Amino acid sequence: TRDSTTRHLLTLLEEIDDDNSGEISTEELMEAMKKEHILNYFEALQLETDDIQGLVELLDIDGSGTIDIVEFVDGLQNLKGTARSIDVHIIMKQNKMIME
User: Distance between CA atoms of 69 and 82, rounded to whole angstroms?
Assistant: First the structure.
């Protein structure tokens, strides 16, 4: 269920957020992906982890350079199971930024 997924994602965010800032940096996410259970969780969500920088840019809606709680939970829930369309989402975001 969505509530269960949200709880799991919040727990995951807490673990990835090494400096306890409430936000995840690219570096924190890259470091976290070295942990097998975190990598497995992303794989269970059917999210490719080959392009961490691209994933951070995609989830970073406000352009702050980090992913906050809302961006992380909402973003991963929206992308869940759409591993093959992540590149499409990145292109759509880039196009939106160009149009603004």
Answer: 20
Q: What percent of the chain has pLDDT over 90?
A: 38
Cross-strand partners of 23: 68
Could you tell me where the beta strands, DSSP code E, fall in 1-100? Answer: 23-24, 67-68
**What percent of the chain clears pLDDT 70, i.e. is strictly above it?**
83
**What is the token pair recorded at 96?**
């939106």
Question: 5 Cβ partners below 8 Å, 6+ apart?
Answer: 77, 80
Q: What is the largest CA-CA distance in the chain?
A: 39
Helix-then-strand count for the chain, H and E: 6, 2
Kind of pairing, strands 67-68 and 23-24? antiparallel
What's the CA gap between 11 and 79, in Å, rounded? 18
